[in-house]
Write a structure and sequence with these properties.
heterodimer; A: alpha/beta; four-stranded antiparallel beta sheet; 9 helices; 29% strand; B: mainly alpha; ABC transporter involved in vitamin B12 uptake, BtuC; two-stranded antiparallel ribbon; 1% strand
Protein backbone atom coordinates (compact mmCIF):
# COMPACT_ATOMS: atom_id res chain seq x y z
CA UNK A 1 0.00 0.00 0.00
CA UNK A 2 1.44 3.35 -0.83
CA UNK A 3 1.59 5.89 1.92
CA UNK A 4 -0.08 9.17 0.95
CA UNK A 5 0.52 11.02 4.21
CA UNK A 6 3.20 10.43 6.79
CA UNK A 7 3.07 12.25 10.09
CA UNK A 8 6.42 12.06 11.81
CA UNK A 9 6.96 12.86 15.51
CA UNK A 10 4.73 15.87 15.08
CA UNK A 11 4.60 18.46 17.85
CA UNK A 12 2.63 21.66 17.70
CA UNK A 13 -0.11 23.86 19.05
CA UNK A 14 -0.80 27.51 19.71
CA UNK A 15 2.14 29.74 20.67
CA UNK A 16 3.59 28.35 23.91
CA UNK A 17 0.80 25.86 24.33
CA UNK A 18 1.86 22.50 22.88
CA UNK A 19 -1.18 20.35 22.16
CA UNK A 20 0.15 17.58 19.94
CA UNK A 21 3.08 15.84 21.66
CA UNK A 22 5.13 13.93 19.13
CA UNK A 23 2.48 12.09 17.17
CA UNK A 24 3.34 9.69 14.34
CA UNK A 25 0.82 8.26 11.89
CA UNK A 26 0.79 6.79 8.37
CA UNK A 27 -2.18 7.17 6.07
CA UNK A 28 -2.43 4.93 3.00
CA UNK A 29 -4.08 5.91 -0.25
CA UNK A 30 -7.78 5.14 -0.05
CA UNK A 31 -7.85 5.13 3.73
CA UNK A 32 -10.98 6.31 5.53
CA UNK A 33 -9.70 7.26 8.95
CA UNK A 34 -12.10 8.35 11.66
CA UNK A 35 -10.48 10.43 14.39
CA UNK A 36 -12.25 10.29 17.75
CA UNK A 37 -11.37 11.44 21.23
CA UNK A 38 -12.61 13.62 24.06
CA UNK A 39 -12.77 17.42 23.87
CA UNK A 40 -9.32 18.94 24.01
CA UNK A 41 -7.53 15.77 22.97
CA UNK A 42 -6.06 17.60 19.97
CA UNK A 43 -8.15 16.30 17.07
CA UNK A 44 -8.74 19.66 15.41
CA UNK A 45 -5.19 20.81 16.13
CA UNK A 46 -3.89 17.69 14.37
CA UNK A 47 -6.03 18.46 11.33
CA UNK A 48 -4.90 22.08 11.27
CA UNK A 49 -1.27 21.00 11.40
CA UNK A 50 -1.90 18.79 8.36
CA UNK A 51 -3.63 21.62 6.48
CA UNK A 52 -0.82 24.08 7.35
CA UNK A 53 -3.19 26.40 9.18
CA UNK A 54 -0.74 25.80 12.06
CA UNK A 55 3.01 25.39 11.94
CA UNK A 56 4.52 22.42 13.78
CA UNK A 57 7.05 23.24 16.48
CA UNK A 58 8.96 20.09 15.58
CA UNK A 59 8.53 17.00 13.46
CA UNK A 60 6.70 17.19 10.18
CA UNK A 61 3.94 16.15 7.84
CA UNK A 62 4.97 14.53 4.56
CA UNK A 63 2.69 14.32 1.57
CA UNK A 64 3.93 11.50 -0.67
CA UNK A 65 7.37 11.94 0.82
CA UNK A 66 7.44 15.71 0.43
CA UNK A 67 7.43 17.92 3.52
CA UNK A 68 4.28 20.05 3.24
CA UNK A 69 6.12 23.03 4.72
CA UNK A 70 8.25 23.04 1.57
CA UNK A 71 5.31 22.93 -0.83
CA UNK A 72 3.63 26.10 -2.01
CA UNK A 73 0.28 26.64 -0.37
CA UNK A 74 -1.48 26.29 -3.73
CA UNK A 75 0.32 23.03 -4.46
CA UNK A 76 -0.82 21.68 -1.13
CA UNK A 77 -4.41 22.86 -1.56
CA UNK A 78 -4.66 21.14 -4.95
CA UNK A 79 -4.06 17.87 -3.11
CA UNK A 80 -5.43 18.37 0.38
CA UNK A 81 -8.75 20.08 1.12
CA UNK A 82 -10.16 21.01 4.50
CA UNK A 83 -13.83 20.97 5.45
CA UNK A 84 -14.34 23.18 8.48
CA UNK A 85 -17.30 23.02 10.82
CA UNK A 86 -18.89 26.16 9.51
CA UNK A 87 -18.29 29.10 7.24
CA UNK A 88 -18.18 32.83 7.92
CA UNK A 89 -21.37 34.59 6.89
CA UNK A 90 -20.19 38.18 7.32
CA UNK A 91 -19.91 38.78 3.58
CA UNK A 92 -22.95 37.68 1.62
CA UNK A 93 -21.46 35.63 -1.21
CA UNK A 94 -23.72 33.38 -3.25
CA UNK A 95 -23.39 29.62 -2.87
CA UNK A 96 -21.98 29.31 -6.37
CA UNK A 97 -19.37 32.03 -5.77
CA UNK A 98 -18.24 30.25 -2.64
CA UNK A 99 -17.94 26.86 -4.27
CA UNK A 100 -16.06 28.45 -7.16
CA UNK A 101 -13.47 29.63 -4.65
CA UNK A 102 -12.46 26.00 -4.37
CA UNK A 103 -10.84 26.47 -7.76
CA UNK A 104 -8.38 29.12 -6.51
CA UNK A 105 -5.53 26.61 -5.96
CA UNK A 106 -5.78 25.61 -9.62
CA UNK A 107 -5.57 29.16 -10.98
CA UNK A 108 -2.48 31.20 -11.77
CA UNK A 109 -2.02 34.76 -10.54
CA UNK A 110 -3.20 36.28 -13.82
CA UNK A 111 -5.96 33.76 -14.37
CA UNK A 112 -9.67 33.95 -13.73
CA UNK A 113 -11.97 30.91 -13.67
CA UNK A 114 -12.63 29.27 -17.01
CA UNK A 115 -15.74 27.47 -18.24
CA UNK A 116 -14.16 24.25 -16.99
CA UNK A 117 -13.87 25.62 -13.47
CA UNK A 118 -17.52 26.70 -13.56
CA UNK A 119 -18.46 23.23 -14.73
CA UNK A 120 -16.52 21.56 -11.91
CA UNK A 121 -18.20 23.84 -9.38
CA UNK A 122 -21.64 22.91 -10.77
CA UNK A 123 -20.73 19.23 -10.65
CA UNK A 124 -19.83 19.43 -6.96
CA UNK A 125 -22.97 21.42 -6.21
CA UNK A 126 -25.01 18.66 -7.80
CA UNK A 127 -23.01 15.94 -6.04
CA UNK A 128 -23.72 17.45 -2.62
CA UNK A 129 -27.35 18.03 -3.53
CA UNK A 130 -27.37 21.83 -3.38
CA UNK A 131 -27.46 22.78 -7.04
CA UNK A 132 -30.90 24.32 -6.46
CA UNK A 133 -29.35 26.68 -3.88
CA UNK A 134 -26.61 28.01 -6.14
CA UNK A 135 -27.92 31.56 -6.40
CA UNK A 136 -28.86 31.86 -2.73
CA UNK A 137 -26.81 34.02 -0.41
CA UNK A 138 -24.77 32.12 2.14
CA UNK A 139 -26.38 33.94 5.06
CA UNK A 140 -29.84 32.86 3.91
CA UNK A 141 -29.00 29.17 4.38
CA UNK A 142 -29.53 26.86 7.32
CA UNK A 143 -26.48 25.54 9.15
CA UNK A 144 -26.92 22.16 7.51
CA UNK A 145 -27.04 23.66 4.04
CA UNK A 146 -23.95 25.75 4.79
CA UNK A 147 -22.08 22.63 5.83
CA UNK A 148 -22.79 21.06 2.47
CA UNK A 149 -21.56 24.23 0.75
CA UNK A 150 -18.24 23.87 2.57
CA UNK A 151 -18.05 20.24 1.48
CA UNK A 152 -18.85 21.14 -2.15
CA UNK A 153 -16.14 23.80 -2.10
CA UNK A 154 -13.57 21.35 -0.74
CA UNK A 155 -14.52 18.82 -3.44
CA UNK A 156 -14.12 21.55 -6.08
CA UNK A 157 -10.46 21.66 -5.08
CA UNK A 158 -10.33 18.11 -6.51
CA UNK A 159 -8.17 16.88 -3.65
CA UNK A 160 -6.65 13.44 -3.16
CA UNK A 161 -6.93 13.81 0.59
CA UNK A 162 -9.94 15.30 2.33
CA UNK A 163 -9.76 16.51 5.93
CA UNK A 164 -13.07 16.96 7.68
CA UNK A 165 -13.65 18.52 11.08
CA UNK A 166 -16.98 17.16 12.27
CA UNK A 167 -18.75 17.53 8.94
CA UNK A 168 -22.05 16.38 10.39
CA UNK A 169 -22.21 18.41 13.59
CA UNK A 170 -25.01 20.68 12.33
CA UNK A 171 -26.95 18.04 10.40
CA UNK A 172 -30.04 16.08 11.30
CA UNK A 173 -29.69 12.27 11.13
CA UNK A 174 -31.10 12.12 7.59
CA UNK A 175 -28.55 14.59 6.29
CA UNK A 176 -25.78 13.02 8.37
CA UNK A 177 -26.27 9.71 6.62
CA UNK A 178 -26.56 11.47 3.25
CA UNK A 179 -23.23 13.27 3.65
CA UNK A 180 -21.40 10.27 5.07
CA UNK A 181 -22.80 7.98 2.35
CA UNK A 182 -21.48 10.44 -0.22
CA UNK A 183 -18.04 10.44 1.41
CA UNK A 184 -18.05 6.63 1.51
CA UNK A 185 -18.94 6.55 -2.18
CA UNK A 186 -16.16 8.97 -3.11
CA UNK A 187 -13.78 6.93 -0.99
CA UNK A 188 -14.76 3.66 -2.69
CA UNK A 189 -15.20 4.75 -6.29
CA UNK A 190 -12.62 7.52 -6.67
CA UNK A 191 -10.06 6.43 -4.11
CA UNK A 192 -10.44 9.69 -2.19
CA UNK A 193 -8.46 9.42 1.03
CA UNK A 194 -10.36 10.76 4.03
CA UNK A 195 -9.40 11.83 7.53
CA UNK A 196 -12.50 12.78 9.46
CA UNK A 197 -13.08 13.95 13.00
CA UNK A 198 -16.35 12.67 14.40
CA UNK A 199 -17.86 12.98 17.83
CA UNK A 200 -20.47 10.32 17.22
CA UNK A 201 -18.72 7.02 17.89
CA UNK A 202 -21.39 4.97 16.15
CA UNK A 203 -21.13 6.99 12.95
CA UNK A 204 -17.35 6.61 13.11
CA UNK A 205 -17.75 2.85 13.57
CA UNK A 206 -20.17 2.54 10.66
CA UNK A 207 -18.23 4.54 8.09
CA UNK A 208 -14.50 4.61 8.88
CA UNK A 209 -12.33 1.70 7.86
CA UNK A 210 -9.80 2.64 10.53
CA UNK A 211 -10.25 4.59 13.73
CA UNK A 212 -7.71 6.62 15.67
CA UNK A 213 -8.64 7.24 19.29
CA UNK A 214 -6.83 10.31 20.61
CA UNK A 215 -6.00 11.24 24.16
CA UNK A 216 -4.00 14.25 25.37
CA UNK A 217 -2.30 14.99 22.08
CA UNK A 218 -1.29 11.41 21.34
CA UNK A 219 -2.90 8.47 19.63
CA UNK A 220 -4.19 6.14 22.34
CA UNK A 221 -5.14 3.37 19.94
CA UNK A 222 -5.45 2.98 16.19
CA UNK A 223 -6.93 0.12 14.21
CA UNK A 224 -10.18 -1.29 12.86
CA UNK A 225 -13.40 -0.16 14.57
CA UNK A 226 -13.61 -3.55 16.29
CA UNK A 227 -10.11 -3.20 17.70
CA UNK A 228 -10.46 0.37 18.92
CA UNK A 229 -14.06 0.64 20.04
CA UNK A 230 -13.95 -1.70 23.00
CA UNK A 231 -15.59 -0.69 26.24
CA UNK A 232 -12.22 -0.77 28.04
CA UNK A 233 -10.66 1.73 25.63
CA UNK A 234 -13.66 4.03 25.65
CA UNK A 235 -14.12 3.97 29.39
CA UNK A 236 -10.47 4.72 29.96
CA UNK A 237 -10.21 7.63 27.51
CA UNK A 238 -13.66 9.19 27.95
CA UNK A 239 -13.95 8.44 31.68
CA UNK A 240 -17.47 7.16 31.22
CA UNK A 241 -19.26 3.85 31.34
CA UNK A 242 -20.54 2.44 28.03
CA UNK A 243 -21.91 -0.78 26.67
CA UNK A 244 -20.60 -2.11 23.34
CA UNK A 245 -22.69 -4.46 21.25
CA UNK A 246 -23.08 -5.01 17.51
CA UNK A 247 -25.00 -2.94 15.03
CA UNK A 248 -27.39 -5.54 13.60
CA UNK A 249 -27.20 -4.07 10.09
CA UNK A 250 -23.50 -3.34 9.66
CA UNK A 251 -22.07 -5.79 12.14
CA UNK A 252 -19.84 -2.98 13.40
CA UNK A 253 -19.49 -2.07 17.09
CA UNK A 254 -22.41 -0.13 18.49
CA UNK A 255 -21.83 1.99 21.57
CA UNK A 256 -24.63 2.46 24.05
CA UNK A 257 -24.36 5.22 26.64
CA UNK A 258 -25.07 4.30 30.23
CA UNK A 259 -26.52 7.29 32.12
CA UNK A 260 -25.29 7.79 35.66
CA UNK A 261 -27.73 6.66 38.31
CA UNK A 262 -29.00 8.97 41.04
CA UNK B 1 -27.42 41.41 -10.94
CA UNK B 2 -25.87 41.48 -14.35
CA UNK B 3 -22.38 42.84 -14.26
CA UNK B 4 -22.26 43.87 -17.89
CA UNK B 5 -25.50 45.81 -17.71
CA UNK B 6 -24.43 47.60 -14.54
CA UNK B 7 -21.07 48.46 -16.08
CA UNK B 8 -22.70 49.88 -19.19
CA UNK B 9 -25.14 52.00 -17.19
CA UNK B 10 -22.37 53.33 -14.98
CA UNK B 11 -20.14 54.01 -17.96
CA UNK B 12 -22.88 56.06 -19.61
CA UNK B 13 -23.35 57.94 -16.34
CA UNK B 14 -19.62 58.59 -16.28
CA UNK B 15 -19.68 60.00 -19.82
CA UNK B 16 -22.54 62.25 -18.79
CA UNK B 17 -20.72 63.36 -15.66
CA UNK B 18 -17.54 64.10 -17.62
CA UNK B 19 -19.51 66.26 -20.05
CA UNK B 20 -21.19 68.07 -17.17
CA UNK B 21 -17.83 68.58 -15.49
CA UNK B 22 -16.47 70.13 -18.65
CA UNK B 23 -19.46 72.34 -19.44
CA UNK B 24 -20.51 73.60 -16.03
CA UNK B 25 -18.48 75.92 -13.89
CA UNK B 26 -18.09 79.44 -12.62
CA UNK B 27 -17.72 80.56 -16.23
CA UNK B 28 -20.58 79.27 -18.35
CA UNK B 29 -19.52 77.87 -21.68
CA UNK B 30 -22.06 76.24 -24.00
CA UNK B 31 -21.10 72.76 -25.12
CA UNK B 32 -20.71 73.89 -28.72
CA UNK B 33 -18.16 76.54 -27.83
CA UNK B 34 -16.15 74.37 -25.47
CA UNK B 35 -13.53 73.48 -28.01
CA UNK B 36 -12.98 77.04 -29.31
CA UNK B 37 -9.53 78.51 -28.90
CA UNK B 38 -10.82 81.31 -26.66
CA UNK B 39 -11.97 78.79 -24.10
CA UNK B 40 -8.96 76.56 -24.18
CA UNK B 41 -7.56 77.65 -20.79
CA UNK B 42 -10.84 77.00 -19.01
CA UNK B 43 -11.31 73.76 -20.89
CA UNK B 44 -7.86 72.48 -19.94
CA UNK B 45 -8.37 73.37 -16.29
CA UNK B 46 -11.67 71.55 -16.18
CA UNK B 47 -10.31 68.56 -18.04
CA UNK B 48 -7.55 68.28 -15.44
CA UNK B 49 -10.11 68.39 -12.66
CA UNK B 50 -12.21 65.69 -14.28
CA UNK B 51 -9.17 63.46 -14.71
CA UNK B 52 -8.14 64.11 -11.11
CA UNK B 53 -11.68 63.26 -9.96
CA UNK B 54 -11.65 59.93 -11.81
CA UNK B 55 -8.20 59.10 -10.49
CA UNK B 56 -8.96 60.06 -6.89
CA UNK B 57 -12.40 58.43 -6.85
CA UNK B 58 -11.24 55.11 -8.26
CA UNK B 59 -8.07 55.00 -6.21
CA UNK B 60 -9.76 55.77 -2.91
CA UNK B 61 -12.70 53.44 -3.51
CA UNK B 62 -10.58 50.48 -4.62
CA UNK B 63 -8.08 50.80 -1.79
CA UNK B 64 -11.00 51.11 0.62
CA UNK B 65 -12.44 47.86 -0.75
CA UNK B 66 -9.12 46.10 -0.41
CA UNK B 67 -8.51 47.26 3.17
CA UNK B 68 -12.04 46.37 4.27
CA UNK B 69 -11.51 42.84 2.98
CA UNK B 70 -7.98 42.42 4.33
CA UNK B 71 -8.82 43.72 7.79
CA UNK B 72 -12.36 42.28 7.71
CA UNK B 73 -13.49 45.54 9.18
CA UNK B 74 -16.35 47.55 7.66
CA UNK B 75 -14.88 50.80 8.99
CA UNK B 76 -11.59 50.36 7.18
CA UNK B 77 -10.79 53.05 4.62
CA UNK B 78 -7.70 54.25 2.76
CA UNK B 79 -6.76 56.68 5.52
CA UNK B 80 -7.26 54.22 8.37
CA UNK B 81 -3.61 53.35 8.60
CA UNK B 82 -2.56 56.89 9.40
CA UNK B 83 -1.69 58.03 5.88
CA UNK B 84 -3.99 61.02 5.83
CA UNK B 85 -2.97 62.63 9.09
CA UNK B 86 0.68 61.83 8.40
CA UNK B 87 0.44 63.49 5.01
CA UNK B 88 -1.57 66.37 6.45
CA UNK B 89 0.99 66.97 9.17
CA UNK B 90 3.85 66.93 6.69
CA UNK B 91 2.02 69.28 4.32
CA UNK B 92 1.02 71.73 7.06
CA UNK B 93 4.57 71.75 8.43
CA UNK B 94 5.91 72.38 4.95
CA UNK B 95 3.49 75.28 4.46
CA UNK B 96 4.56 76.83 7.77
CA UNK B 97 8.25 76.41 7.12
CA UNK B 98 7.61 78.10 3.79
CA UNK B 99 8.79 75.36 1.51
CA UNK B 100 8.31 76.18 -2.16
CA UNK B 101 4.85 75.13 -3.30
CA UNK B 102 6.13 72.59 -5.73
CA UNK B 103 7.72 70.52 -2.97
CA UNK B 104 4.70 70.35 -0.68
CA UNK B 105 3.17 67.36 -2.52
CA UNK B 106 6.44 65.55 -2.05
CA UNK B 107 6.32 66.33 1.67
CA UNK B 108 2.73 65.04 1.83
CA UNK B 109 3.65 61.85 0.03
CA UNK B 110 6.61 61.23 2.31
CA UNK B 111 4.44 61.96 5.35
CA UNK B 112 1.92 59.35 4.20
CA UNK B 113 4.54 56.71 3.57
CA UNK B 114 6.38 57.47 6.80
CA UNK B 115 3.22 57.12 8.87
CA UNK B 116 2.33 53.77 7.31
CA UNK B 117 5.84 52.53 8.04
CA UNK B 118 5.48 53.59 11.68
CA UNK B 119 2.01 52.03 11.97
CA UNK B 120 3.19 48.81 10.36
CA UNK B 121 6.21 48.44 12.61
CA UNK B 122 4.14 49.25 15.70
CA UNK B 123 1.70 46.49 14.78
CA UNK B 124 4.42 43.90 14.24
CA UNK B 125 4.59 41.23 16.87
CA UNK B 126 6.75 38.15 16.54
CA UNK B 127 7.00 38.82 12.82
CA UNK B 128 3.23 38.72 12.51
CA UNK B 129 0.76 41.48 11.88
CA UNK B 130 -2.48 41.18 13.78
CA UNK B 131 -5.41 43.04 12.21
CA UNK B 132 -6.44 44.55 15.50
CA UNK B 133 -3.03 45.95 16.36
CA UNK B 134 -2.72 47.33 12.84
CA UNK B 135 -6.00 49.19 13.17
CA UNK B 136 -5.19 50.36 16.70
CA UNK B 137 -1.76 51.70 15.82
CA UNK B 138 -3.27 53.36 12.75
CA UNK B 139 -5.83 55.10 14.94
CA UNK B 140 -3.20 56.14 17.47
CA UNK B 141 -0.87 57.60 14.86
CA UNK B 142 -3.82 59.37 13.24
CA UNK B 143 -4.87 60.97 16.51
CA UNK B 144 -1.32 61.99 17.37
CA UNK B 145 -0.72 63.53 13.95
CA UNK B 146 -4.13 65.24 13.93
CA UNK B 147 -3.52 66.91 17.28
CA UNK B 148 -0.13 68.09 16.07
CA UNK B 149 -1.89 69.55 13.04
CA UNK B 150 -4.36 71.42 15.24
CA UNK B 151 -1.46 72.59 17.39
CA UNK B 152 0.40 73.96 14.37
CA UNK B 153 -2.72 75.50 12.85
CA UNK B 154 -3.61 77.31 16.07
CA UNK B 155 -0.10 78.75 16.35
CA UNK B 156 0.55 79.61 12.72
CA UNK B 157 -2.91 79.35 11.20
CA UNK B 158 -3.36 83.03 10.45
CA UNK B 159 -0.50 82.98 8.01
CA UNK B 160 -1.59 80.32 5.61
CA UNK B 161 -5.07 79.17 6.58
CA UNK B 162 -6.26 78.84 3.02
CA UNK B 163 -3.32 76.74 1.96
CA UNK B 164 -3.65 74.46 4.99
CA UNK B 165 -7.35 73.99 4.37
CA UNK B 166 -6.56 72.99 0.84
CA UNK B 167 -4.54 70.08 2.18
CA UNK B 168 -6.73 69.10 5.07
CA UNK B 169 -10.04 69.10 3.24
CA UNK B 170 -8.87 68.37 -0.27
CA UNK B 171 -9.36 69.98 -3.63
CA UNK B 172 -9.20 68.75 -7.17
CA UNK B 173 -7.84 72.07 -8.36
CA UNK B 174 -4.63 70.55 -9.61
CA UNK B 175 -2.13 73.38 -9.60
CA UNK B 176 0.55 71.51 -11.45
CA UNK B 177 -0.47 69.22 -14.35
CA UNK B 178 2.87 67.42 -14.16
CA UNK B 179 2.01 66.24 -10.65
CA UNK B 180 -1.16 64.67 -11.95
CA UNK B 181 0.81 62.64 -14.43
CA UNK B 182 3.27 61.69 -11.73
CA UNK B 183 0.49 60.37 -9.51
CA UNK B 184 -1.32 58.74 -12.43
CA UNK B 185 0.97 55.72 -12.69
CA UNK B 186 1.17 54.56 -9.08
CA UNK B 187 -2.61 54.93 -8.72
CA UNK B 188 -3.53 53.09 -11.92
CA UNK B 189 -0.92 50.39 -11.31
CA UNK B 190 -2.16 50.02 -7.74
CA UNK B 191 -5.76 49.56 -8.85
CA UNK B 192 -4.69 46.94 -11.39
CA UNK B 193 -2.66 45.05 -8.80
CA UNK B 194 -5.61 45.01 -6.39
CA UNK B 195 -7.87 43.76 -9.19
CA UNK B 196 -5.43 40.92 -9.89
CA UNK B 197 -5.90 39.87 -6.28
CA UNK B 198 -9.72 39.97 -6.55
CA UNK B 199 -10.27 36.26 -5.97
CA UNK B 200 -7.72 36.21 -3.13
CA UNK B 201 -9.58 39.11 -1.51
CA UNK B 202 -12.77 37.06 -1.72
CA UNK B 203 -11.06 34.24 0.15
CA UNK B 204 -9.43 36.55 2.69
CA UNK B 205 -12.73 38.25 3.44
CA UNK B 206 -13.98 34.87 4.69
CA UNK B 207 -11.25 34.71 7.32
CA UNK B 208 -7.55 34.06 7.53
CA UNK B 209 -7.80 30.32 8.05
CA UNK B 210 -10.42 29.85 5.34
CA UNK B 211 -8.10 31.65 2.95
CA UNK B 212 -5.16 29.42 3.86
CA UNK B 213 -7.34 26.37 3.23
CA UNK B 214 -8.08 27.74 -0.23
CA UNK B 215 -4.39 28.10 -1.02
CA UNK B 216 -4.21 31.85 -0.46
CA UNK B 217 -1.06 32.97 1.29
CA UNK B 218 -2.65 35.66 3.42
CA UNK B 219 0.49 36.96 5.07
CA UNK B 220 2.25 37.91 1.85
CA UNK B 221 -0.86 39.21 0.18
CA UNK B 222 -1.69 41.40 3.16
CA UNK B 223 1.77 42.93 3.09
CA UNK B 224 1.66 43.60 -0.63
CA UNK B 225 -1.82 45.07 -0.61
CA UNK B 226 -1.28 47.29 2.43
CA UNK B 227 1.77 48.70 0.70
CA UNK B 228 -0.18 49.19 -2.53
CA UNK B 229 -2.99 50.96 -0.68
CA UNK B 230 -0.48 53.23 1.05
CA UNK B 231 1.08 54.10 -2.31
CA UNK B 232 -2.32 54.90 -3.80
CA UNK B 233 -3.48 57.08 -0.93
CA UNK B 234 -0.07 58.75 -0.56
CA UNK B 235 0.02 59.63 -4.25
CA UNK B 236 -3.55 60.90 -4.18
CA UNK B 237 -3.08 63.01 -1.07
CA UNK B 238 -0.06 64.63 -2.64
CA UNK B 239 -2.08 65.84 -5.62
CA UNK B 240 -5.45 66.64 -4.09
CA UNK B 241 -5.16 66.67 -0.32
CA UNK B 242 -7.28 64.61 2.02
CA UNK B 243 -10.67 63.66 0.59
CA UNK B 244 -12.57 61.62 3.11
CA UNK B 245 -15.63 59.41 2.95
CA UNK B 246 -15.30 58.23 -0.67
CA UNK B 247 -13.06 55.32 0.29
CA UNK B 248 -15.47 54.33 3.03
CA UNK B 249 -18.91 54.64 1.51
CA UNK B 250 -18.46 53.81 -2.15
CA UNK B 251 -17.24 50.29 -1.30
CA UNK B 252 -20.21 49.76 1.00
CA UNK B 253 -22.72 51.14 -1.47
CA UNK B 254 -21.38 48.90 -4.21
CA UNK B 255 -21.44 45.89 -1.88
CA UNK B 256 -25.07 46.61 -1.08
CA UNK B 257 -25.87 46.74 -4.76
CA UNK B 258 -23.62 44.08 -6.25
CA UNK B 259 -22.63 41.77 -3.41
CA UNK B 260 -19.20 41.05 -1.96
CA UNK B 261 -17.52 39.46 -5.00
CA UNK B 262 -14.42 41.57 -5.64
CA UNK B 263 -14.30 40.73 -9.31
CA UNK B 264 -17.53 42.66 -9.77
CA UNK B 265 -16.99 45.10 -6.95
CA UNK B 266 -13.72 46.64 -8.13
CA UNK B 267 -14.74 47.71 -11.65
CA UNK B 268 -18.15 48.88 -10.42
CA UNK B 269 -16.56 50.91 -7.63
CA UNK B 270 -14.09 52.55 -10.04
CA UNK B 271 -16.89 53.78 -12.28
CA UNK B 272 -19.30 54.86 -9.58
CA UNK B 273 -16.65 56.58 -7.47
CA UNK B 274 -15.52 58.50 -10.55
CA UNK B 275 -19.04 59.70 -11.21
CA UNK B 276 -19.49 60.59 -7.54
CA UNK B 277 -16.25 62.57 -7.41
CA UNK B 278 -16.93 64.50 -10.62
CA UNK B 279 -20.34 65.53 -9.29
CA UNK B 280 -18.92 66.46 -5.88
CA UNK B 281 -16.20 68.52 -7.53
CA UNK B 282 -18.75 70.25 -9.73
CA UNK B 283 -20.77 71.16 -6.64
CA UNK B 284 -17.69 72.29 -4.75
CA UNK B 285 -16.85 74.89 -7.40
CA UNK B 286 -20.31 75.99 -8.48
CA UNK B 287 -22.50 75.99 -5.34
CA UNK B 288 -21.05 79.17 -3.85
CA UNK B 289 -18.95 80.37 -6.78
CA UNK B 290 -16.54 82.07 -6.80
CA UNK B 291 -15.88 80.62 -3.34
CA UNK B 292 -14.84 76.99 -3.58
CA UNK B 293 -16.07 74.60 -0.90
CA UNK B 294 -13.45 71.96 -0.03
CA UNK B 295 -14.44 68.76 -1.80
CA UNK B 296 -13.95 66.69 1.35
CA UNK B 297 -16.85 68.59 2.88
CA UNK B 298 -19.09 67.93 -0.12
CA UNK B 299 -18.31 64.22 -0.25
CA UNK B 300 -19.32 63.89 3.39
CA UNK B 301 -22.47 66.02 3.09
CA UNK B 302 -23.74 64.12 0.04
CA UNK B 303 -22.30 60.77 0.99
CA UNK B 304 -23.78 60.42 4.45
CA UNK B 305 -27.48 60.69 3.55
CA UNK B 306 -27.00 58.66 0.38
CA UNK B 307 -25.44 55.92 2.42
CA UNK B 308 -28.12 55.98 5.10
CA UNK B 309 -30.78 55.77 2.39
CA UNK B 310 -29.16 52.70 0.88
CA UNK B 311 -28.60 51.11 4.25
CA UNK B 312 -32.27 51.50 5.19
CA UNK B 313 -33.48 50.25 1.83
CA UNK B 314 -30.89 47.66 1.03
CA UNK B 315 -29.85 44.25 2.20
CA UNK B 316 -27.10 43.59 4.71
CA UNK B 317 -23.67 45.15 4.23
Amino acid sequence: MDIILKIDKLKGGYFQDEIIHGLSLDISRGDFLGVIGPNGSGKTTLLRLISRALKPSSGGVFYKGCNIARMSLKQLCRRVAFVSQDIATGFSFTVEELVLMGRIPHLGRLQFESKKDMQIAREKLALTGILNLKDKLINELSAGERQRVVLARALAQEPELLLLDEPTSHLDIGHQVQVLDLLKKLNRTQGLTIIMILHDLNLAASYASRIALMEKGMIFKIGSPEEVLTYQNIEQVYQTVVLVNNNPVTGKPNIVLVPGRD
Amino acid sequence: MHLRRALIVLFLLLVLAVLLGLVKGAVKIPLAELFLKDNQVVFNLRLLRVVAAILAGSGLAVSGIALQAILRNPLAEPYLLGTSSGAGLAAVSAVIIGVSRIYIPLAAFLGAILSIVIVYSLARERGQIADKSLILSGVIISIAASSLIVFLVSLFGSRAMHEMNWWLWGSLQVYEPKLLFLAFFPVIMGILVIYLFAQDLNAISLGEEEAIHLGVNTRNIKKILILVCALISGSLISICGIIGFVGLIVPHMMRLIAGPNHKKLIPLACLSASVFMIICDLLSRTLFAPVEIPIGVITAIIGAPLFILLLKKGKKV
